[in-house]
Design brief:
By secondary structure, the chain is an alpha+beta fold. It folds into 2 domains: 227 residues, no CATH class; 72 residues. It is built from 10 helices and 8 strands. Strands 1-2-5-6-7-8 form a 6-stranded mixed sheet. Helix 3 runs antiparallel to helix 5 and helix 5 crosses helix 6. The longest helix has 49 residues. It is elongated.
Length: 321
């Protein structure tokens, strides 16, 4: 083969290699797009599930009776564990033959005596640490027991303390703010829920057979129903928190949202859902399997909702002022 033929052969091989590399790049890019599209759809579905299942993530229940009856902690006593080990080493000390030759007996004994002093100090430090931890823990137990007694007695101030700890920071999905009206043996939770456009996506995601991502506008009815489930889920979550942390047989939850007042043309916070939750009924619910909106049929509630228009203002079961 002449040099021209060699060049043509090498060039053809290079072009074939470039075409193969380009084919692989396209295949990898398409596979990545398909994977990313699938992940986007999964994330979208997970988000929708999150906003309508707020009620399944309620706070852990508190047994106030158990806290009130908790016995005092056992006060630690001084121990001489390190000292005993050091004394045993001294008692078992035996001079060695070379100690007599080189005069090492006294030095070894001095080290053992110094180790005894360190051991006594270590025992003292350990007891001081344990006693400090005990005093802190016992004080916390006494404070908790006192709070538990007040909670069980239905004191308004005790309920306020519990709720302030329960909601001491941002609560994901629970809304813009939460207010509580607390009386003796009575709690009324009043969340200002997030606006529909801020919490519910206005689009739908779907992965086509080709693997590409399809994004379409969410139908108004589906959008409104998702928002309804979100609002009802928030109400269920608050009821679960209250029943789990306070010894109440009933509680009220009134959800408000920022809405346009067509009479004034101004935005204002208006009640859109009011529920009287009863503990016995609530505790029989399967929170992980229910539909938030449908579940309110188990309780006395006020809600004016239409799939085509969404929520409208209602008169709460219990005054919010």
């Amino acid at each position: 083969m002449g040099w021209k033929g060699t060049v043509r052969s090498v060039s053809a091989a290079m072009r074939a290699a470039e075409r193969e590399a380009e084919r692989r790049r396209k295949a990898e890019f398409k596979a990545q797009q398909i994977e990313e599209a699938g992940q986007a759809v999964d994330d979208w579905k997970q988000y929708l599930d999150d906003i309508i299942s707020v009620h399944t993530d309620k706070a852990d229940d508190i047994n106030w009776q158990s806290i009130a009856n908790a016995p005092p902690l056992v006060e630690p006593k001084p121990e001489k564990r390190h000292q005993a080990e050091a004394l045993a080493n001294i008692e078992n000390f035996q001079p060695r033959i070379f100690d007599f030759v080189f005069g090492g007996t006294s030095r070894r004994r001095e080290r053992l005596d110094a180790a005894l002093a360190d051991a006594i100090a270590a025992d003292s430090d350990e007891f001081a640490r344990k006693r400090s931890e005990y005093l802190i823990a016992e004080q916390e137990r006494e404070e908790d027991a006192h709070l538990a007694t007040r909670v069980l007695d239905g004191e308004k101030s005790a309920y306020s303390e519990v709720i302030s700890v329960l909601y001491d920071g941002e609560e994901l999905y629970l809304g813009q703010s939460i207010q509580f009206k607390i009386d003796d043996n009575s709690v009324h939770a009043m969340p200002l829920v997030s606006e529909a456009d801020d919490i519910v996506p206005t689009f739908r995601l779907k992965q086509l057979q080709s693997g590409k991502l399809s994004k379409t506008k969410m139908p108004k009815g589906e959008f409104n129903e998702l928002y309804q489930d979100y609002v009802c889920s928030v109400a269920l979550r608050l009821a679960g928190d209250i029943f789990g942390n306070l010894p109440l047989d009933e509680c009220h939850v009134t959800c408000s949202a920022t809405m346009l007042n067509t009479k004034t043309g101004h935005l204002e916070d208006a009640p859109i859902l009011s529920v009287l939750f009863v503990r016995d009924t609530f505790e029989r619910l399967n929170l992980s399997g229910l539909d938030p909106s449908d579940s309110l049929a188990n309780f006395n509630h006020e809600m004016n909702f239409r799939k085509t228009k969404g929520f409208e203002r209602i008169e709460p079961l219990k005054p919010t002022d």
